[in-house]
Write a structure and sequence with these properties.
Layout lengths: L17 H8 L3 H14 L7 H23 L13
Helix pairs in contact: 2-3
Length: 85
C-alpha cells in the first residue's frame, strides 16, 4: 500500500445512502477523503492522494463551522471614529 491509499479497514462508503453516509462521515476529513476516493473509483475516475484530499476537506469543514458560528451571532454595528485625526 502506498501513501494516500485507504486503510484496509476503511468501510465501503459507496454502500451508504445519503443521510447514513453523512452521519458516518461526520466532520472527519479523513473519512470524507476516503469516501471521495471510493466514489471516484466506482465512477471510473482515478483516485487521489488521501493526505492531500484530507487537507481540502479539513479546510472546507472548518470554514463551514466558522460560517455557521458567525451566522449565530447578532449583526454588528459600525464603529465611528472617536479619536482625533
Amino acid at each position: 500500500m502506498s501513501y494516500g491509499e485507504a486503510q484496509p479497514h476503511t468501510p465501503d462508503y459507496t454502500l451508504l445512502a445519503g443521510p447514513t453516509l453523512l452521519f458516518a462521515l461526520g466532520d472527519d476529513a479523513t473519512k470524507w477523503a476516503a469516501a471521495f476516493n471510493q466514489h471516484a473509483a466506482k465512477l471510473g475516475y482515478p483516485t487521489m492522494d488521501e493526505g492531500w484530499l484530507t487537507g481540502w476537506f479539513a479546510n472546507a469543514i472548518e470554514n463551514s463551522s466558522d460560517v455557521r458560528a458567525r451566522r449565530t451571532r447578532p449583526p454588528t454595528t459600525p464603529v465611528f471614529r472617536s479619536f482625533p485625526n
